[in-house]
Write a structure and sequence with these properties.
Layout: H1 4-17, E1 24-29, E2 38-44, E3 60-66, H2 72-79, E4 85-91, E5 117-123, H3 127-133, E6 141-142, H4 153-164, H5 168-196, H6 221-238, H7 245-276
Parallel strand pairs: 1-6
Antiparallel strand pairs: 1-2, 2-3, 3-5, 4-5
Amino acid sequence: APPRAEKMAAATGRAAGEAPAGYTALAVKFAERQRSAHCLLVKEHQVREGADTAHPPRRTLFVLNVPPYCGPDSLSRLFSRCGHVQFVDICDKPGPGEKKDKLTSKFFNHKTVKGFQVAYVVFRKPASVQAAKALSQEGPLLISTESHPVKTGISKWIASYEASIVDPKELKAEVDAYMQDYDKKVAEEEAKAAKEEGVPDEEGWVKVTRKGRKPGLPRTEAANLRVLEKEKQKRARKELLNFYAWQHRETKREHIAQLRKKFEEDKQRIALMRAQRKFRPY
């Protein structure tokens, strides 16, 4: 019987060779001391012709089954032997990959991806994608090495806690930059609206804006209450009275009850007046 190490190597080779149609299996290990290997499923990323995407075709490697401990830096280092890696985009599921016009925020809109993920590795040259697929012929690739260790356990928690501490100066600088861009965008929209005000379009229509003789109501609490009261009165006037037969019967029944009540009240008042009447000849 072959030794245990040979059995493990044979099992790793069989696992690496088994891949879905269109994919290539790459064996990776977390560290040298790890015995079992993990398989990354890779293929050339393909998109519809003319699609606007951040992952250009022919230069992007699509990677499935990415473990949680394998981040963008680890993937970039793994595939850097195949060519220059421009960037690595890790997602929780495959998507169109819209272009990012601006840099992502360091403090806001951070989404933590849990569990196994998918990745898009964008190379500078198309030949690097084929070279990355050819790595399946080599032995297992190491994710954590002595020169580039991946933090785990208490060291990872410490690094995560240190990264969660916000620098007030950096936060203020990012917020100020965002507000400057926002004010600039609003000013451009207002200038464009002022330029197009009163100018008919191709079909002859003129766009009416709020900046006319009758501007919008101020959004105060009293104004909101008045608007709500007017809407309530308008709805009350629009209600259909006696629309159904049962509503008509109920209305008649209530009217008859009110007439009977008024008749009894009138009888009591007349009886009281007769009792109080006295004969006074002089």
